[in-house]
Write the structure tokens for this entry.
Amino acid sequence: MNYFVWDVYFKGEGFAYCEKMNGINDTNIVSLLTGKKLENPLPDITAESFSRGSIGDIFGWAAGLVASEKIKKHLEGENVQFIPVKILSSDLKYYLANFLSAVECIDKKKSTIEYYNSNPDYIEKIRKLVLLSEIDESLQAFRILERPDVVLVCEKMKNQLQRISKSAGVFTPTEKFKIGYF
């Protein structure tokens, strides 16, 4: 099965990026970045300022993907926690998508990766990403266990998201994905 890294649009790509979000504390941000479920009561989050560009069905923020109602409907049932986000300039419904499934899926022999010196359980840099062939095919969207800020989607999910939205984010084939190398 083919997988893609699902990412947000960045400044300069014609779509807005959230630059300021209020109502969420540092503990919740760490939970969002690592795929840990936020407990009730959920924070009352407001997206207050954006970079130039239009707000798509996906927009980025420091702690992850923020999805429109349309995208949320396609992710329901995929072990994703949705935290409502109020947009000051809009009545549209958006949600922080907290992907709760994390999978040890990297073929460490075939990939080119570097771990953090301070935390050798987590990957700092990926130059070449090769996935294991035994990934549970029922998972359509999940995090990489050793790099939990990276979300993968299967080709079927990518195609569905692109079919329903012209602004569903950026999908990079795993073999072309790099992080930490500039």
Notes: Residues 10-99 form one domain.
